[in-house]
């Protein structure tokens, strides 16, 4: 790519849930078309999601994005090429497991390149929602924490290799989100999760100093883009870091947690061609 091409080419980071795909994990046709046109116009598109790669549907990956930022910024790939990967320390995993036990938090998971390691409580939640977590395209990536074999003298933290955690409490927890955020601060940065409808205390556990924002900066640097030529599009608190890091930030019309307040552009709802309209406003497609 020549220097003149680079000035017109944008590096776009797109969240999945609530931004690219709706609550039924369906990508609107208008979004598919807009993404293809933007790439044809010379722009590079990266998924930027809290999910680990094994938790991204094949029909989304098959849309042909230029790269994937996963586990909330802890890993980035271009195809099979790994750009970078950060892992949660064993001590942090063990500290959080002890905290969950102390506060009777039973629904949680750890995510990484190897898949999703879930508690019995999280498994029950999936089954109550009718989700066939142990069948279909993701089956081989789900692991029950109770079935992980921890070698004698070792701990769970030293046994699994993950890049992010998430959890939600019951409807009447003995600790608030703010309390949990404070208590786990030595090991993690906590951001609001996606379980507000069923839990007053739910969140994502991000490695301190690593988030979607650091991923935007690192990917841009590795690919030779100025931050001014980066764009981030998201819909919730867990997109805040990338929205604030990018040269241009876009909030979906269905955005929550008040992120619209600091974004440069607010597009329409995901059900009203939000991504396609954002691309049109930005002159990408």
Question: What does the model show?
Answer:
The longest helix is centred in the middle third of the chain and has 13 residues, at 90-102. The protein is α/β, with parallel strands linked by helices. The protein contains 10 helices and 14 strands. The two termini are 19 Å apart. The model is unreliable at 1-7 (pLDDT under 50). A hairpin with a 2-residue loop joins strand 4 and strand 5.
**Shape annotation:** globular
Number of helical elements: 10
- The total beta strand count reads 14
Poorly predicted sequence stretches spanning 5 or more consecutive residues: 1-7
Structural class: alpha/beta
Specify the oligomeric state: single chain
Which properties best describe this structure?
8-stranded mixed beta sheet, 6-stranded mixed beta sheet, 14 strands, single chain, 29% helix, 285 residues, alpha/beta
């Amino acid at each position: 790519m020549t220097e003149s091409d680079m000035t017109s080419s944008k590096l776009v980071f797109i969240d999945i849930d609530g931004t690219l795909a709706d609550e039924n994990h369906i990508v609107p046709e208008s979004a598919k078309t807009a993404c293809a046109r933007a790439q044809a116009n010379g722009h590079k598109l990266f998924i930027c999601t809290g999910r680990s790669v094994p938790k991204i549907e094949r029909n989304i990956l098959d849309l042909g994005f230029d790269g994937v930022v996963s586990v909330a910024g802890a890993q980035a790939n271009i195809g099979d090429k790994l750009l970078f990967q950060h892992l949660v320390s064993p001590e942090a995993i063990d500290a959080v497991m002890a905290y969950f036990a102390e506060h009777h938090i039973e629904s949680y998971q750890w995510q990484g390149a190897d898949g999703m390691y879930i508690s019995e409580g999280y498994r029950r939640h999936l089954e109550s929602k009718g989700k066939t977590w142990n069948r279909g395209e993701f089956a081989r990536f789900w692991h029950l924490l109770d079935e992980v074999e921890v070698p004698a003298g070792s701990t769970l933290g030293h046994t699994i290799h993950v890049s992010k955690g998430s959890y939600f409490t019951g409807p009447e927890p003995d600790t608030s989100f703010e309390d949990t955020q404070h208590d786990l601060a030595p090991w993690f940065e906590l951001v609001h999760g996606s379980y507000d409808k069923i839990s007053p205390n739910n969140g994502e556990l991000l490695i301190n100093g690593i988030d979607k924002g650091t991923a935007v900066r690192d990917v841009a640097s590795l690919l030779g883009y100025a931050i001014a030529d980066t764009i981030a599009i998201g819909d919730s608190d867990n997109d805040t870091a990338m929205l604030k890091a990018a040269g241009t930030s876009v909030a979906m019309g269905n955005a929550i947690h008040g992120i619209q307040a600091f974004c440069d552009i607010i597009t329409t709802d995901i059900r009203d061609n939000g991504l396609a309209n954002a691309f049109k406003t930005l002159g990408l497609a």
